[in-house]
Amino acid sequence: MTDLTDLDLPQLFAALEVSDICAINGIASLANILRQRGLLTITEASALHQSMSLPLSLPRHANNPAVQELQLHLDQLFAHIVAPD
User: Could you read off the pLDDT of 1-17 as tens digits, one per residue?
Assistant: First the structure.
């Protein structure tokens, strides 16, 4: 394993971005599976999307292009999940 003290700032930021995307994809995938099995309603999926979006929309983050990109990715994933059957 690489010694993490050798990471430079761009590598650290890239790792954080990738971990965020992995987490968002995993949560959305699980939500999609639950929706397909009838274990998650559209209302519940929408509430999940809203709760995940809340920190991204805070004023101190909302104008950050990287945050905006994450929000767009989240919106696209959940648009499919909350689509009517």
Answer: 566 677 788 888 888 88
